[in-house]
């Protein structure tokens, strides 16, 4: 796959910028679960390492002890592995380098390029100026090196309260780049860190740590999202002042997906506000949510390939992601019949004690997948929506007096509609079948306009089915009043159907296995709530294919 990032790498290889080496990294902050946006970055970084016979590190950017948890780091490792990437022995943590980073800070102080500032957060803001007006120097800017060294050591020793001091780079308060106006390098945080415990009372800022971690790991190409383009002058300044080599930073556009949000901070709000059942709720755009929903690693990697890598931001239609799994499962998923909203059908001319097994194709796209046998008997279920007592013009499915085909079975004709006397609700249909049409074709060549799926009532297995809608009603959930994305949540994005009936062959279906339920879409056995007695199926996506197409192929 070609993209502008690879073009830059090709050029660097030609000019021998880093010798023949290509070494990338994927640097998540362990403050939440990975989402599909991270998959784009993973595919890019690990994909490049693989194609150039280079290496890719997994590095946790764990510089903020407050929002980070070991559990997040574990989930991230599991997700990276699941997506099919291998960091070998190169699992690193920014916290591994805290001692080194501290030493680098001391070097800057000794060069009079960093100072301990006592301005509070508000004051720092005031001194900073604006995009159009220069900032003012901090009154602490001209401290001696000796004093700065002493104060910084005491910050480290925990002598000062949080927020009372920072170590700042001494750059230029009038720089047109706001980021260069003496940015903070270290802050006091009296919090235990999930790896270093209580050892540190000061923690490096992301910008200081990140470029140095890349340098320490000898990363050649530091690939990041566009918002970091602004920070590049600061990275260059830090690396220059320390006299060390510069990895090539390359910025690309982050993935935005319609009808969802891709930000760990926002996804955390959905989890904490109980708008979803957890990070792995099948509606979440997290890798764990997509996995539970039924997405395969291949489908996500193919999606990332398809959307490519560009330099300008855009919103990718979520349908592109859905198509990717649909295409894969169309080829691979075994077919099955499942009735989501059952309507009882009695075949009045079929003997009460008779039953037979009919042959059904497992996957019309792949003859190798063979056939299976599905039981047929006098009492069946079909979908409620496949019958209309008073059918409108374009409704070709079952109606009083009308004949349709039951998939792999027989033609049936509706003779009678039985209703609940009190409510008027249809409780069952009485139909007759034509024994001559076994397998679904009439020897006299007569046609029907619809083919319905069905299950045998006596044999079917009861199941729960969960149908999902987009998590948000708006294409861009940020849009609208006050920009609170949560006001744009879809009111009922989960619909649970508790008394579905599926063909008996699905008994014991392995959690995580995927099927196409004919006419209803692609489904995955839920890995959390499913049991052998009562399977639970998540709908991954609906079918784009209409039944009409399958009909055409049959002829
Ligand atoms: P979030 O806002 O979701 O927390 P982040 O950028 O803060 O995202 P990190 O853990 O820092 O999350 O991200 C690790 C890597 O994944 C970074 O290199 C980042 O650029 C990349 N990344 C994060 N979100 C996206 C996205 N939507 N598209 C592409 N890459 C992304
Ligand atoms: Mg981040």
The CATH topology of the largest domain corresponds to Rossmann fold
Overall number of structural domains:
3
Low-confidence stretches: 545-551
* Mean pLDDT level: 95
The count of strands amounts to 28
- In spatial order, strands of the major sheet run 13-26-27-28-24-25-14
Helical stretch count? Answer: 13
Shape: elongated
N- and C-termini, Cα separation: 40 Å
- Which structural category fits the helices and strands? alpha/beta
Under the CATH scheme, which class of the largest domain?
A: Alpha Beta
Provide the helix percentage: 25-40%
Radius of gyration, whole Å: 31 Å
Biggest sheet layout: 7 strands, mixed
CATH superfamily of the largest domain: HUPs
Tell me what portion of residues adopts beta-strand conformation.
Answer: 15-25%
CATH architecture of the largest domain: 3-Layer(aba) Sandwich
Strand-helix topology:
Elements (H helix, E strand, L loop, with lengths): L3 H11 L2 E4 L2 E4 L9 H16 L3 E6 L9 H13 L8 E3 L4 H13 L3 E4 L3 H8 L16 H12 L9 E4 L14 E5 L13 E3 L1 H11 L4 E5 L6 H10 L6 E5 L3 E2 L6 H9 L14 H7 L3 H11 L7 E2 L1 H15 L2 E2 L1 E2 L2 E6 L7 E7 L9 E7 L1 E5 L19 E4 L4 E9 L6 E9 L16 E2 L2 E2 L4 E8 L25 E9 L11 E4 L3 E5 L10 E6 L5 H8 L1
Parallel strand pairs: 2-3, 3-4, 9-10, 11-12, 13-26, 15-21, 19-22, 24-28
Antiparallel strand pairs: 5-6, 6-7, 7-8, 14-25, 15-18, 16-17, 18-23, 19-20, 20-21, 24-25, 26-27, 27-28
Question: What distinguishing features does this structure have?
Answer:
555 residues; alpha/beta; Rossmann fold; Ribosomal Protein L25, Chain P; 3 domains; 7-stranded mixed sheet
